[in-house]
Amino acid sequence: MTREELVQQIHIKKSCLCIGLDTDIAKIPSFLLDTDDPVFEFNKIIIDHTHEYCVAYKPNIAFYESMGPKGWMALEKTLRYIPEHIFTIADAKRGDIGNTGKMYAKTYFEYYHFDAVTVAPYMGRDSIDPFLEYHNKWTILLGLTSNPGSADFQMLRTGDAYLYEEVIRLSSEWGTPRNLMYVTGATHAEKLKSLREIAPHHFFLVPGVGAQGGSVEEVMKAAGIKGETGLLINSSRDILYASAGEDFGQAAQRRAAELQSVMSRYI
Amino acid sequence: MTREELVQQIHIKKSCLCIGLDTDIAKIPSFLLDTDDPVFEFNKIIIDHTHEYCVAYKPNIAFYESMGPKGWMALEKTLRYIPEHIFTIADAKRGDIGNTGKMYAKTYFEYYHFDAVTVAPYMGRDSIDPFLEYHNKWTILLGLTSNPGSADFQMLRTGDAYLYEEVIRLSSEWGTPRNLMYVTGATHAEKLKSLREIAPHHFFLVPGVGAQGGSVEEVMKAAGIKGETGLLINSSRDILYASAGEDFGQAAQRRAAELQSVMSRYI
Prior knowledge:
Two copies of one chain form a homodimer.
Chain A: H1 3-13, E1 17-21, H2 38-50, E2 56-59, H3 61-65, H4 69-81, E3 87-94, H5 98-111, E4 116-119, H6 125-132, E5 138-144, E6 157-158, E7 161-162, H7 163-171, E8 180-184, H8 189-198, E9 204-206, H9 216-223, E10 231-235, H10 237-240, H11 248-264
Helix pairs in contact in A: 2-4, 2-11, 5-6, 8-9
């Protein structure tokens, strides 16, 4: 998907909501457990109820991987079920040397046909380049994450900057605002502003809204790009598990609609 | 596998060789392509011919993942085929927030029964802890990698140290030499000595011998631990693709035996 197509969807839906499909077999309502593929059935109902309110879905690969080959089959079916105009992100956080990076890029862009994949920066440029080489595909590099451990290394000072700032500054020369985005954790809204100065034109994927505590308004005010929004704001558990009962689809829909309604004020 | 068991195998075989199973369907001798599962058939022949000379196998997960569910099935069969006393490493370089990290740990330790998994440090302690919680399992954290991109972030100065030194120094307090190892690239043999000072008791997994250019002797002299060796030295492509013909098993055996013979002088 091109940047123009993504921005168009954001304007049409007045939403920059990304829904994280962190589908955990241990949290799926029990009535689905008798079906052939409970993970896919759960995702299907979530997608049916939320696709009007979001512009992206982000399957969290760990949850599928942990189930062995049948988890990957559920992922494949889920990808095919997501409507064409919705941006798809493999939340995989991969990163390895060139010849291995190529294999990861092939997995997500060629085998599963994702629009985007999240990548870890630690191994540097040749671990990221294989993803950037794909036309109209996106690399979403970890900048600042939303977990407590982000303080351990990302916030180390290196010269005049934090490591996460240096990661964004340097890598922004490797890709362009048309093929590279950044993960920037919403639990640090005050830091989003300074990141927007370092990368004024790149989309930010902002996790940590909801279960992890960030606020949609704060994020949109701090890091929006005028006319393009430039943000994908993610919510996972808050939407997926809004109800543990048979009405989980409706509950997810209400939560997604609430978030979309807040977003619409800034788009 | 416990540390004592691993050290015992190193002494019995006079080898600290780890063979990377970066099995690439595009490089497999063509006579295997007609079989039901060429990747598994290739691995089987490699294992048959090399298991006497190595103490560890390290499947590179990207190569299996890129083939979809059937790649994971080949991985599962490969794992079952590796003799019990050989240490197994999932070269996965995973790393994500706590609840997702748990899923990755579950994948490699519970579903596939690996002894160890490689993990990326960027997201900090709560992304690593879920792996460290398993009894008699190992986390192998990226310290200094052997690719050109290691210069981009790993070698940034942070305070008085390089980032990779700080990663090792800080994380060595999270695990112990009985459940935590480090990836330390062999193309920087001069740096291995100083890393051994920072982490005197932890095993190092050293990639980059062979195709990537490092020397076994240099590594063993620079970073060995007296009486325990404390090293797993990896070779992948040099062994797997020593011949492109039907004799690839024998060629792999010769190459593995050569490396083991060099190692035996220092064990």
